[in-house]
Hints:
The chain has helices at 2-16, 214-239; strands spanning 23-32, 58-60, 65-78, 91-92, 98-99, 109-111, 113-114, 118-122, 135-136, 144-145, 153-154, 169-171, 178-182, 186-187, 190-191, 198-209. By secondary structure, it is an alpha+beta fold. Strand 14 (186-187) and strand 15 (190-191) form a beta hairpin. Helix 1 packs antiparallel against helix 2.
Amino acid sequence: xxxxxxYSVVLCLAILAPPTQAAAVSVSTSVDAAINIWGAGxxxxxxxxxxxxxxxxxxxxxxxATSVVFDNVDGLVDYGPCCPPNDADGIxxxxxxxxxISYQGIAGLYVPRGRFLAGVFLDSSEPADPAPVRLAIxxxxxTSLAPGLRQSFFIGDGxxxxxxxxxxxxxxxxxxxxxxxxxxxxxxxxxxxxxxxxGALNVTxxxxxxxxxxxxxxxxxxxxxLVAASKRNRCVTQNRxxx
Length: 243
């Protein structure tokens, strides 16, 4: 009778518990123009013509994160004598989608821009070939994007317009534990030529984190308490001397 009543109380409290609200977890970092996005998840960079650049810094994804937005991206990067400095959105490519090759397990992408801030989601393993299929982004004014693991993707300034518009939402793929930020740089189809890149971008990213609903925590805790109470009562009964 006691156990049935206690179970009913726990169940009612779980049902009546208020819903858990999603929270935002923000991270700020600096992304140097020499950061090689193909180096994400690796411990060293292979030698490349013109310089392999530097390894990306890891941003650990909070547990329960479902998406990320980039609240602020500012600064300028310079790809060397060939080009004037540009912001995070990079420069427009007028001859179609600029292909970025796949390399060392990280997929490139097709996008009508170059020299932009890029990202890639990874799980806990080191990337290895073959890389997944490349994303094809025909319009960088999207409101939401869902890249897969090891698929590099366009971030730019994180807004639907260039310096204006609304924040773009990037869905965190299943099993992703890390986010890397950096740049693609190449010449005649080969990655490299990072050594003459200068400048940096200041980036603030905010993850939307959805914790386990409070009702489930309450129900689970209550059930554990009931199990412990039941075992305790059984021990007392078994050890009680006979009349």
